[in-house]
Please model this.
Amino acid sequence: MLRIRGTARTTRPDTVAAEEPLEIRLSGTPLAVTMRTPGHDFDLVHGFLATEGVIAGSDDVLGLRYCDSVDADGRNTYNVVDVDLAPGVEPPDTALDRNFYTSSSCGVCGKASIDAIRTRTRHDVAADGTRVPLATLLALPDRLRAAQEVFDKTGGLHAAGLFTAEGELVALREDVGRHNAVDKVVGDAVREGRLPLTGHVLMVSGRASFELTQKAAMAGIPVLAAVSAPSSLAVELAADVGITLVGFLRGDGCNVYSRPERLDLPAP
Model:
């Protein structure tokens, strides 16, 4: 690639983040296609199904496997995952409001209306009494960044980190799509049987969108923090379900848009 810095011009190799499609099927029937960074695919699938309200936990998944995806040389591309839901778990009716087509950056594209995506969480997030010291919250962006191994090589990945209220990193995932990174973090918790994620903080490297706020609610996460701006719908949903939504978390400051009482603030 050609590297331009002011008047300097150099040609050198570079490393870029991988992006490939992942098709999710339910018992052989296509459900969703998402563009993602390969890796932790089963976490991504579990998280996607949980945050879309298809499953409540790992017991709702009977099994899953890579299948039916080969390249020109007959090698498995590992770009198709087929899921068997447990008996009694109803598959979603994709003919109603959404074909479940997503991309690495589309957010809520394909949804018919805002009302269609207000999936009601099974968890009472508003009742979560978690409190987070401000100093702990302010330290999370640096802790998230320090754990981003692939970002150091590519500079092109979003990250989602799940922290305890004391600032301990529980899980971190990276992906070209911010919502994929969150699904991978949630999926890890689903597979380990740790939902709901009461007492935790979800830290994301980009902005706080409506969809990320919905995913936090579906996983029972009481605090969502982002280094960039939230959207108006994210603020509205956070206030509605009882999530503490923090934006512009940088340096020594942040903006708290809902449920500020969860933060332990020093005296002014």
Remarks:
- Residues 104-117 have pLDDT under 50 and may be disordered.
- The chain has two domains: 20-117, 125-264.
